[in-house]
Design goal:
Layout lengths: L4 E5 H4 L2 E2 L3 H17 L9 E4 H8 L3 H17 L1 E7 L5 E7 L1 E7 L4 E6 L4 H5 L5 E5 L9 H11 L6 E5 H7 L10 H19 L2 E10 L2 E11 L25 H12 L2 H7 L6 H11 L3 H6 L1 H6 L6
Antiparallel strand pairs: 1-8, 2-4, 3-7, 4-5, 6-7, 9-11, 10-11
Helix pairs in contact: 3-4, 6-8, 9-11
Length: 312
C-alpha cells in the first residue's frame, strides 16, 4: 500500500474487544484503504478490500485471503467492542457497539466491502484530541491477535516508553474472557510471552515486562519498551560542538535532533510529510537536515510550536 499509516483515537486503542488476527487486519486495511483512495470514512460509504491485496500485505496465499474475506461476512459483522468516555460532567460513559454496520463479499471478484458503524467513524476520523498512529507494515508479520492488541496498547505510549495495567484491565483490553487462561502460568505461556516474542522479533519495538504483586497475588503488569535502532541517526555535524547555535535557525544541534524526533513521531505531521514507505527513523534523519533551513522552520512553525519550539 502506498501510505499504510494507521491512525486511531486513543479511546479506540484502549477499548475492550476480541477480534481474530484476520479481522483486525481487515479493519486496519480498511482504514489504510480510505486514506490511499482519499474517499474518506463515513457510516455510509463502503470500503473495498481485495483478496490479492490482503495476500500481498500479510504474505499469505490467495486461497487463504479469499477464505478470510468470505468468513468475515459472518464473523466480523457480529463483533462488538466496549469503550469508555467522559461526559461534560466528567462522568464515565460506557458504550458497547459493533465495528461494522454492513459487510458484503463478492466471490467472483474476490473483494470485501466494509461499512463502519456510526460509533467507529469518529474514532478513526475526528482526531483533534488524543490519538495514536503506526504503520500497517509494522504488524503485518504478527500472527497472534494478542500481539497486535499489545502492540497497539504499547505504541500509544511511545513517548514514555512504559505503561502499567492491572491484570484484569489488561485481560479485558486484549479480549480474554473471564474463563480463559485463569492460571498465571497458562496466561504467560499462551498469551503474554508469545505476544511479546512476536513483537520483539517482527516489529520496530523491543519489549520487556515485570509482574506487579499484591502480596503473593499477581495484580498487574509493567511493560517497558523502546524502538529498535533500524539505522543510526546521523548528527547534524561532526565538526562542531553540539551546543553551538545554528546561525540561521538559532537552534543547537541537540535542539535540532530533539525537535526532529518530536516531529517525526507526531502523527499529524508524519501523516502529511512522510514519503511513501519512509520509516519513522528515516523521516527523523531527513528532518535533521531540513531543520537547518529557516524556510522549513517558517513553513512548519505551527507544528513546531505544538512540541515546545519558541521562535525567538
Amino acid at each position: 500500500m502506498k501510505n499504510d499509516l494507521i491512525v486511531k483515537a486513543n479511546t479506540l486503542i484502549n477499548a475492550s474487544y476480541n477480534l481474530e488476527v484476520s479481522e483486525q487486519r481487515l479493519i486496519l486495511m480498511s482504514i489504510v484503504q480510505a486514506r490511499n483512495t482519499e474517499t474518506g470514512i463515513d457510516a455510509v460509504t463502503p470500503l473495498k478490500i481485495y483478496a490479492q491485496d490482503y495476500a500481498k500485505q500479510f504474505n499469505t496465499t490467495k486461497e487463504t485471503a479469499y477464505e478470510v474475506l468470505k468468513n468475515a461476512v459472518n464473523n466480523l459483522f457480529e463483533r462488538q467492542f466496549t469503550y469508555r468516555e467522559l461526559d461534560t460532567d466528567n462522568k464515565e460513559i460506557v458504550t458497547k457497539s459493533r465495528w461494522v454496520s454492513r459487510i458484503s463479499y463478492k466471490d467472483s471478484s474476490g473483494f470485501l466491502q466494509i461499512t463502519f458503524s456510526p460509533d467507529v467513524v469518529p474514532l478513526i476520523t475526528r482526531l483533534e484530541k488524543q490519538f495514536t498512529s503506526y504503520y500497517l507494515n509494522e504488524i503485518s508479520n504478527l500472527s497472534s491477535k494478542y500481539s497486535i492488541r499489545l502492540y497497539e496498547l504499547l505504541i500509544s505510549w511511545r513517548v514514555v516508553g512504559k505503561v502499567s495495567f492491572s491484570l484484569s484491565d489488561f485481560r479485558e483490553k486484549i479480549g480474554l474472557s473471564e474463563n480463559e487462561y485463569l492460571k498465571m502460568n497458562d496466561f504467560k505461556k499462551r498469551v503474554l510471552e508469545p505476544a511479546i516474542k512476536q513483537i520483539n522479533d517482527s516489529t520496530n519495538l523491543i519489549v520487556k515486562y515485570e509482574q506487579l504483586k499484591d502480596g503473593r497475588r499477581i495484580s498487574g503488569i509493567n511493560f517497558f519498551f523502546k524502538e529498535k535502532n533500524i539505522q543510526k541517526i546521523k548528527t547534524v555535524s561532526t565538526n562542531r560542538d553540539p551546543d553551538t547555535l545554528d546561525l540561521f535557525t538559532k537552534l543547537t544541534d541537540k535542539q535540532i535532533s530533539f525537535f526532529a524526533k518530536k516531529l517525526a513521531y507526531d502523527p499529524e505531521f508524519s501523516s502529511k510529510n512522510a514519503k511513501i514507505g519512509e520509516e519513522y527513523s528515516e523521516l527523523e534523519n531527513r528532518l535533521i537536515d531540513e531543520m537547518n533551513n529557516p524556510k522549513f522552520v517558517e513553513k512548519n512553525i505551527s507544528f513546531l510550536k505544538n512540541i515546545g519550539f519558541k521562535n525567538t
